[in-house]
């Protein structure tokens, strides 16, 4: 698994003088759990960086089914695309837990973007990484079955969202329903496939979390299904 620090964070990669200018023009905003920051179709008016909590980008079907497009943690940036191409928001941004974000307006963003070319360079690097991620997800969705897609999702989550527990197990705090939203599958289907991974000796399912007990087997069986090493963000 190829892990990248600050994959979704272009702001902290800026030089100190530019970073200070960015912070000077930013303001902090707080949200409660499961609160909507912006909605799909709204005008893009600001770029945001998470300082506490988390955010999921998601869309909804006509029947109300939620599909999670991306999941961001503290340090991650989002909302920059609409400020560059002036198109409306392509998804809904919803908080996960008590969340604080640093916000910079479109006016201030464009001022800094034009004044400091390194901002565009860092955004380009971040967006290229995201394209690589999306390419992986597209390959998975078009070629692999649900069992394989689930295994690869757990591999990525173990690196980006996992916590070490006893016996060097990796714990992922999530629910069957949350994973189903990521993969566009029902909770029942996810539960069935998780039991299959348990039988393979790769994981153990506990209440509210999944333990990766044999990462070597998980990697050996599912890492190179599409012929290349997987990419995922990693956090300190």
Task: Explain this structure.
The protein has 236 residues and is an alpha+beta fold. The protein folds into two domains: 138 residues, Sandwich (Jelly Rolls); 90 residues, Winged helix-like DNA-binding domain superfamily/Winged helix DNA-binding domain (Arc Repressor Mutant, subunit A, Orthogonal Bundle). It contains eight helices and twelve strands. Strands 2, 3, 4, 5, 6 and 7 form a six-stranded antiparallel sheet that branches. It has a four-stranded antiparallel sheet with strand order 8-9-11-10. Strand 8 and strand 9 form a beta hairpin. Helix 3 crosses helix 4, helix 5 crosses helix 7 and helix 5 packs across helix 8.
Largest sheet: 6 strands, antiparallel
Write down the overall mean pLDDT: 94
- From the N-terminal CA to the C-terminal CA, the straight-line distance is 16 Å
Can you give the helix content as a percent range? 40-55%
Task: Specify the number of helices.
Answer: 8
Q: Note the beta-strand portion.
A: 25-35%
Count of spatially separate domains: 2
CATH superfamily of the largest domain: Jelly Rolls
Strand segment count: 12
């Amino acid at each position: 698994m190829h892990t990248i620090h600050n994959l979704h964070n272009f702001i902290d990669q800026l030089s100190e003088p530019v970073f200070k200018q960015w912070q000077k023009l930013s303001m902090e905003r707080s949200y409660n759990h499961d609160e909507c920051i912006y909605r799909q179709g709204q005008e893009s008016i600001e770029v945001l960086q998470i300082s506490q909590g988390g955010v999921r980008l998601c869309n909804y079907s006509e029947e109300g089914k939620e599909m999670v497009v991306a999941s961001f943690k503290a340090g991650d940036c989002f909302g920059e695309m609409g400020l560059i191409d002036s198109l409306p928001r392509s998804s809904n941004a919803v908080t996960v837990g008590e969340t604080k974000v640093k916000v910079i307006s479109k006016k201030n963003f464009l001022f800094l973007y034009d004044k400091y070319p390194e901002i565009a360079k860092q955004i380009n690097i971040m967006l290229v990484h995201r394209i690589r991620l999306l390419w992986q997800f597209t390959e998975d969705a078009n070629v692999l079955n649900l069992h394989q897609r689930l295994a690869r999702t757990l591999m990525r989550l173990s690196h980006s969202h996992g916590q070490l527990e006893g016996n060097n197990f990796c714990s992922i705090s999530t629910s069957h329903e949350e994973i189903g939203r990521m993969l566009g599958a029902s909770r029942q289907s996810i539960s069935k496939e998780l039991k299959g991974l348990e039988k393979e000796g790769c994981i153990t399912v506990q209440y509210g979390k999944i333990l990766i007990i044999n990462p070597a087997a998980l990697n050996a069986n599912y890492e190179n299904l599409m012929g290349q090493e997987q990419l995922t963000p990693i956090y300190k």
